[in-house]
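User: Here's a protein and a ligand (zinc ion). What would the complex look like?
Assistant: Let me lay out the input and then the predicted complex.
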Amino acid sequence: MTLIRGLRVAGGHGRALTMRGMTTDLASPALQQRARALPKVLLHEHLDGGLRVGTLLELLRQRGIEPPAPDEAQLAAWFSANAHAGSLEKYLQGFALTIAAMAGLPALERVAFEAAEDARADGAVLAEFRIAPLLFEPYGISGEAAIEALLAGLARSALPSGLIVCALRHLPPAETTRAARLALAWRGRGVIAFDLAGAEFGFPPGGHAEALRLVRDGGLPLTLHAGEADVAERVVEAAHLGARRIGHGVRLVDALNDPARRHLVDEVRRLGVHLEVCPTSNVHTGAAASIAEHPITALWQAGVSLSFHTDNRLMSCVSFAEETATLLRETALTEADLLAMAGEAVGHSFLPEATRTQALAAITAAIRTV
Ligand SMILES: [Zn+2]
């Protein structure tokens, strides 16, 4: 971690992006290009939330499912309308569609491959994707078979990547325990971590103690969604349950601004926990009012280890490059900040050391040009 920490570059917080004396208009295509070229590390993206629109349409038709819109443009507009409806229920409707569309082994392989290729095209030097494999059981696909197909798809891309197995926290503990056993069976064979995803509020991680104990005892790294829809205390709770990374964790910002709870931020820093922040997704689900006001800036400036991710590209109508460009355009974060975040992300990646070293080299080289 020390090496990565050393990469942190003090940001200038200017509204313009300056590269070797040249100023780039932050609304210009040049910014989009720079954002795409910037080496990035993807730690938090759900495979069932990241399908290409064209692929979703094709897969739905193959399975005889009527899509909610007849062509790519209208289907993208449908997702965009749901994303901006201010309703988590509407936002989540999209997942029922994607799971149904992906419920075949060739489809799972294809979606994983395309996600890795999209990340690579957007400048990712390393990626971790996640999904709940047991969601395909009602379609006759075992968790084992789903994981095998997904890993085959990821392996077909040149991008170094791994798979995080999610369990859904609103399901009974017996289900999350089954997902944990499945993840452990694939440890060392492409599955790199375990996560509790799904509705956070009302479903604290402590309710799944058995699954978390199995994962910890089995030596599989743990990341937990926390502090997205629930309070800052959940972030520290997740860390104490063994999570080395936290999905979102943005409500920690409330503790930052409250002297009585400031110790929560200190504790997160002390434990060396890394936040996988997903700005656009947070705006869509109401966890943040706007990108400009998103807690990522304040938490970063407070010295919390974090990085930025896409969460659900399809539902949030965003790419990794667009997420990058938006942060540069609408926050005080600079290109140097985003590169330093990528360094932090590499340091907290669950992928093998050789992969991380290679990714770090690309990031370090880019830092020298800023
Ligand atoms: Zn997520």
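Summary: The chain has a mean pLDDT of 90.
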